[in-house]
Structure of Glutathione transferase:
Amino acid sequence: MEATNQSNHAMKLYSHPMSSCSRRVRLGLEFKGLKYECINITSAGDPELLKINPMGYVPALMDGTTVVSDSFAILLYLEEKYPQHALLPKDLMRKSINYQAASIVSSSIQPLQNLVLVNYIGELVSPDEKLPWAQYHIRKGFVALEKLLGNYAGTYATGDEIYLADLYLAPQLDNGINRFKLDMTEFPLLLKLSKTYNETPSFRQILTETLQQHTDKNVLDFIKQQEA
Ligand SMILES: N[C@@H](CCC(=O)N[C@@H](CS)C(=O)NCC(=O)O)C(=O)O
């Protein structure tokens, strides 16, 4: 049965246009047809965000009186409360592949290419090490994902439906390809998935918006300031 949030209240999503973690959740909200107000955090240490997520990270979701931070927790919360457009397949094996793909992205790739860390490496070691560092860790994760999804992918990462794995992959592929300029020659499956996401309207809308941000000086200045 479809659960909507339209009659009572719109959710609030604390987000940032360049944040791949926020984009995962925005995609989940989009596919579930849920209305939300996107609050773009524009200053480092925003007191409103710190009140609801003491780590100061985006995304954080406010659904009525329920507050949830961390994209994985938010998406699992949404999945239970709003079951329409299931983000997880019923088949246990395929479900576990979705968990694995999401976990590889969120634990073993994104934190290591987070701009805060990349800039820290730049200061600690050398500015020239920033890009190789990010590329090394993204590549390592992509090697694992290319192999993991090889037996399961269809049009999308784990078959012909859009599931959790796609919500994690699309923004991470965008980061790898467009922000960190990773050579994708050795990842034909991931490259094909990236093309599919860019051709699928719901993904494209959020990815295109972000592509503009890669070159937006104000956003880049904000990121630098946040990382200082
Ligand atoms: N595990 C968290 C990670 C959250 C996270 O790292 N968010 C990044 C944006 S993608 C952030 O807020 N970075 C700002 C900072 O590191 O200060 C999630 O999946 O939501």
The CA atoms of residues 78 and 128 lie 41 Å apart.
